[in-house]
Amino acid sequence: MTSVETVKKSEAKFEPKIIIFACNWCSYAGLDLAGTSRLSYPPNVKVIRTMCSGRIDASFVLEAFQKGADAVMIAGCHFGDCHYMEGNYRTQRRYSMLKRMLNEFGIEEDRLRLEWISGAEGTKAKEVITEMVEVVRKLGPLVIAEEL
Amino acid sequence: MADNEEPRIGVYVCHCGTNIAGVVDVKAVAEFAKQLPNVALSVDYVFMCSAPGQEMIQNDIKKHNLNRIVVAACSPRMHEPTFQAAILQVGLNQFLFEMANIREHCSWVHPTEPEVATQKSKELVRMAVAKARLLEPIELEDAPVVARVLVIGGGVAGLTAASDAASAGHAVTLVESSPTLGGNAARVGKLAHSEQTGADVAVQLIRKVVSNENIQIFTDSDITEFTGSIGNYTATITTRPRHVSGACTSCDKCVDVCPIEAPNEYEYGLNTRKAIFKPYDGAHPAYYVIDVETCDKCGKCVEVCEVNAIDLKEEAMNVEIKFGTTIVASGFDAYLPYDGEYGFKKSSKVITLNQLERLLDDKGPTNGKLVMNGKTPETVTFISCVGSMEPPSEDRDTVPYCSRMCCSAAFKSMLQIKDKNPDTHIFGLFKDIRTYARRDERMYEEASKEEILFIRWTNESRPTVKTEKDSVAVTVFDAMLQEDLLIPTDLLVLCVGMRPTANADELSEMLKLCKGADGFIQEAHAKLRPVETPTAGILVAGAAQAPRDIIESTTSGSAAASKAIMPLIAGKVKLEALQAIVDEDVCGGCGICEPVCPYGAISYKDRDEGSRLAEVNSSLCIGCGTCVAACPSGALQQRGFTDLQIEAMIQSM
């Protein structure tokens, strides 16, 4: 199957595959704003939208790694800005739990990132994506141990 | 569409003029989509959101018997509702629709990499198709609406809102926390560009509200419990004991005998009042009230009252009401400088702008005469932005925002002083001058003609104030002259801004409202939904939302009233579509989901075999899906965002 990654790989350089889970109200809007503002960032990311970052099941993140993502970003509203009041506090807890789990699995913790991005923070969206792609590019492809 | 019908997906790739097609090879994307599972049709078109674009989808649904639609175009936040309405028009459930965002998330952010952007677009379409295959129709449920509006706050915004909603024929309950209606506006004295005072305006509104039989009024009352959702809210109103009944004739005998004096909050502490008092002329209710904080229940007032209007044993009362919508108009608190801030409380010659407005009011404590300790001040100095326009620091409780009305209020007061005592020397020490409102700039011009001196200072060189027994001296570094100026002054006025009310946190917690970084209540959308909160059926008006003047407060009060009565006129509301649902066969009643829900939408019911089962209240669930992610067994699912749907996207990334 051809993909962004294989197209880029033809240039003999590792191009990470990154999934962003973003909530509808703040972070997805912030990602939209990056586009509306014509800010460029590396094409390695693909966004999956949920209504609230609180919907992002820990198993989604693990599944993304299992299905070939080299990194995952969870994006939600800043504390106090959550459209559903406190969904992002749950997100924060699940993220902390996931960090510990990834450690157990031998997956580098830099492969999972949590970012609060408001609907006005198009620039932040661009910056965190650009930075994450750089970090994961240095880490190289994700290798999951066979027994997992 | 029958549930078991095989998906037949139509994929539409939009050029968006050149916005997408200028970068992405849209024909290649459409071609790619043709070979994806269950795709019956895949085309590209110049503007999918145009009328011909929408008609194309509608015709294809009929002609090709399509039962799922995927549009690869802009953000779903932009045009999802457009396409959903279009497919619904031809009888296809609007939730059998999915968008791939190949504009904001692709062509616009990868303009220099067309090849990669095309590949990414294909993948985004592949993910959208994977989800679309598993979409299920969602039928929107209707819920009835209780025909009553609750208005919280009896200031000018709340009074206007209550009056407008009631004038349209709807029942209104108005709840005010203090002993009288009228709010802060009733105390601002003579208004700018008007012969009226704030109290005149408040009393006019109060009369309208009191004479409208559709309005039920509670003063001295707070909302102590609040539950429900749009169309069907329930609240408990707790009324503190007033200890004086409507039989009171305002004869004043009780005031004469009352031995207790307390600072008069209606005059910002400029004079005192008794423990039994009437807030101000024109207050409503028009009878006395006993302040329980200061009253020692000596009973002297009871003895002299000829109509037996006083009952010192009266207790708090709770009333439960049901209503369809709520308007939060809980107002603001004026910032109170801390002791010693620019000499505040160190000298009686240092007062706030609110206090000055009372001194200049004909009905104020000095009947409008500007007199300090028996003398008319020859020099009056104003310091602007006290507590405002400065990020907070460890030792200063400042706020970074501008309260917008203080500059104009200062100019209004300066001109009033000049009008009363033309020889007064006035200095205005300003951080910035913002007379932004209509006609207000004229006051600035007038003040300049009156030889009022303006000196600019900055946060780096704040004015300093030295207070001695009989004198106040202000030193300010003039940013223009680059020199320190010493101004001995007879009266120093601190222009203070507006802050969220002391109980704002409690109220927003109870009503589950969002607050901005400034602590004021946040609207759903600053431009498109300026008086709505993100919670359906809860509106916001007046200075509860941001610093506001009277004009802006009454305007937003009217706007909120019209929004509040819309569901009442419709008589029914549509419930959230993307709700959580429980698979009864899987749920073990473990109890994890219930505390996760911020809306209290989940409860448990007993099952026959002694176990229990989670239940989602469809009128409370607003579709965040947080409980779904918490459910360990997968029994909870969110409509439109099921585990399987999201996993299908992950698997095809």
**Biggest sheet record of chain A:** 4 strands, parallel
Helix and strand run of chain A: HEHEHEHEH
Helix content of chain A: 40-55%
- Which stretches of chain B of 5+ consecutive residues score pLDDT under 50? none
The N- to C-terminal Cα distance of chain B equals 28 Å
| Major beta-sheet overview of chain B | 5 strands, parallel
Anisotropy-based shape of chain A: globular
Radius of gyration of chain A: 15 Å
- Give me the number of helical elements of chain B: 17
Could you give the count of β-strands of chain B? 32
Structural features, described:
The complex is a heterodimer of chains A (148) and B (653). By secondary structure, chain A is an alpha/beta fold. Helix content of chain A is 42%, strand content 16%. Chain A contains five helices and four strands, in the order αβαβαβαβα. Chain A has helices spanning 4-9, 27-36, 58-66, 87-105, 122-139; strands at residues 18-23, 45-50, 71-76, 112-116. Chain A has a four-stranded parallel sheet with strand order 2-1-3-4, with helices on both faces. In chain A, helix 2 crosses helix 5 (122-139). Chain A is globular. Chain B is of the alpha/beta class and 653 residues long. In chain B, 27% of the residues lie in helices and 23% in strands. Chain B is built from 17 helices and 32 strands. In chain B, the strands form eleven sheets. Chain B has a five-stranded parallel sheet, with helices on one face. In chain B, strands 18-25-19-20-21 form a five-stranded parallel sheet. The longest helix of chain B is centred in the last third of the chain and has 21 residues, at 550-570. Chains A and B meet through helix 1, helix 2, strand 2, helix 3 and helix 4 of A and helix 3, helix 4, helix 5, helix 16 and helix 17 of B.
Summarize the structure.
Chain A is an alpha/beta fold and 148 residues long. Chain A has five helices and four strands, in the order H-E-H-E-H-E-H-E-H. Chain A starts with a helix and ends in a 9-residue tail after the last helix.
